[in-house]
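I am still learning, so can you show me any protein sequence you like together with the matching structure tokens, please?
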Amino acid sequence: MDASPHEVPPPEAEGAPPAGADHAAGGVEAESDEKPAGAGIGVLFRLRPYDTSTDRGRALERYRRATLITATGFLARALTAAASVISLPLTMGYLGKERYGMWAAISALLTWAVLADFGVARGLQNHLSEAYGKNDPQAASEYMSTAFYTLLFISLGLGVVFGVGLFAVPWHRVLNVDDPKLVAELRPTLAAVVFIFLAGFPLNVVGQAYAAYQRAHVANLFSIGGSVVSLGLLVIVIKLKLGLPWLILATGGFGVSMTVVNLAYIAHDMPWLWPRYAHASKATLRTLMKISGPMLLIQLGGMLISEVQILIIAQTLGVSLVADYTIFLRVFSVPVLIVAMIEAPYPAMYRESYARGDVDWCKTAFRRLQRIKLGLSTLGLLVLLLLGDLAARLLSGATVRFGLEVWAAAGAMLIVGNWNGGYTHLFMSVDRLWTLVVTMALNAFVTFPLTYYFAKSYGIFGVITATTAFSLFITAWLMPVLARDLFRAAPPATIEPARG
């Protein structure tokens, strides 16, 4: 399976699909091609929602929301990046390299702790999207409540484990901290990082609720405000000359508080989304785990492939080439991230449209998005060829240069990743998860030996080639074949259309 699944933007015309879209006879697609009164860019960029009681209204409303989500997402990402550019030198200058490095090392220890939710949060999105499509607030309440309290109990359990480990483990040896001042600050810093992580752990359901109900643009607006306030809190902590634990609690604690506000805001409009212990049940948890289990395996597989490839590079090429590969990934991640942000609204919309029986809309939107993604990926290839080495030199202090063959291979990986990634999200949306698990396992089985062999002979170019090989020669044609039955006249048997 591909590590960089992406999607594409909503239609660029006046309430109609982009030029070149396949037209079905009648149904959602024919109606959504009509130009509404007052056609123009305001069809997509407008605050007033469309009437979703009709096929055409639902189609336009999905595109409107996708446009708002994408636009606010780019703005939020830009402001977050700007805040990071400002805060990084402030933080490092205030803390010093050693204290900042200690903080980074502690945070890295929690990278794999995100898997402790067993895929519950990501699986929740599918169930909420389906409940939204079926107009079933009771089911949504049961899923939301069960997921929240499951994560809450897991968080409490992890808190006990971390609490014991805080004093039982010699952390100064684990993290190789020798300075007596840093050693004295180590456990309070570790406690602050873990506390913020655990406090936010059950709140992971909030982002899934916004995504499922296609309101992520509201969450993005909160994120924009949060970036500004967090930067202000950082300045205040520095002015007051507080320690590293207080800096973590101030900035991280505000983030947790903003998530609580997010939850209260969406629950104000949709009260059934406020978690209620009485609505949580073991039966609902079993239903969640049917999706969460394979979701966890997919997430674990993606992380494992990336980590093992880093180890292979270190073993075959040396640790210095790991640093070069990290520079490559940072440059490559820019076009990946852009397409991923454009894609973000659509998986939940696929699920919701299937639940309603709007299969024609899903087919049209998916094919259109795939075409636009290929266009964006081709553009990304050209940009990498022209500017890839320039960006690498800027990031590395003019010490790293890869050459056109590496960026050409990266462009091929980008195109194939975006193509296959669209099918990955489609399969996730309709619960064809075990197909993805098997594909992930086969990917690892093929990619690991290829990476070892090609890395020794061709360096980073060989690593990229090995990463792309399975996706290009296997999944690029296999996934479209496996997806052929998803666009039949009726939704899959596992998702019944909404009534009424």
In short: The two ends are 38 Å apart (CA to CA). Residues 11 and 18 are 5 Å apart (CA to CA).
